[in-house]
Design brief:
Number of strands: 8
Helix content: 25-40%
Radius of gyration: 20 Å
Strand order of the largest sheet: 3-6-7-8
Order of helices and strands: HEEHEEEEEHE
Number of helices: 3
């Protein structure tokens, strides 16, 4: 006797055996875990680690005016085409720095690459990437 099940039924069965719902067993492309600290929610542990490093640099007075998750409007020819949210913004030796923590996967994301180009075109800001 042969028992046949569809892929969806198989995934649901596996999820029940693990004690999870079928929807919970699906993962995105990039593995990350949201973290909270100081009232901020970070998208990954790497981003949280970078925040802690930047806090130490503020305490050492190497950088100042640290902001988390700043938003920039992306306007082309008077038309708003989107919004870019960086991970960190601060001043280093008087210069404004906009920084994003990226993995090798998210650096290649086409949406991020487009937003990076729009930030340069709209605000003349080069995004500093911290690759983890």
């Amino acid at each position: 006797m042969s028992l046949r099940v569809s892929q969806e039924e198989y995934q649901a069965l596996l999820a029940r055996m693990r004690g999870k719902s079928p929807a919970a067993s699906k993962r995105g492309k990039v593995p990350h875990q949201k973290c909270k600290e100081d009232g901020f929610e970070f998208d990954s542990k790497a981003e949280l680690r970078r925040y802690r490093e930047l806090r130490l640099l503020v305490a050492a007075r190497e950088i100042d005016d640290l902001k988390v998750h700043s938003k920039f409007g992306l306007v082309v020819n008077g038309e708003k085409v989107g919004t870019y949210e960086c991970d960190f913004e601060y001043r280093e030796a008087g210069a404004r720095v906009v920084e994003d923590v990226k993995s090798k996967w998210t650096r290649k994301d086409r949406h991020y690459r487009r937003a990076r180009k729009l930030m340069k075109a709209c605000h003349n800001i080069e995004i500093r990437e911290v690759v983890r």
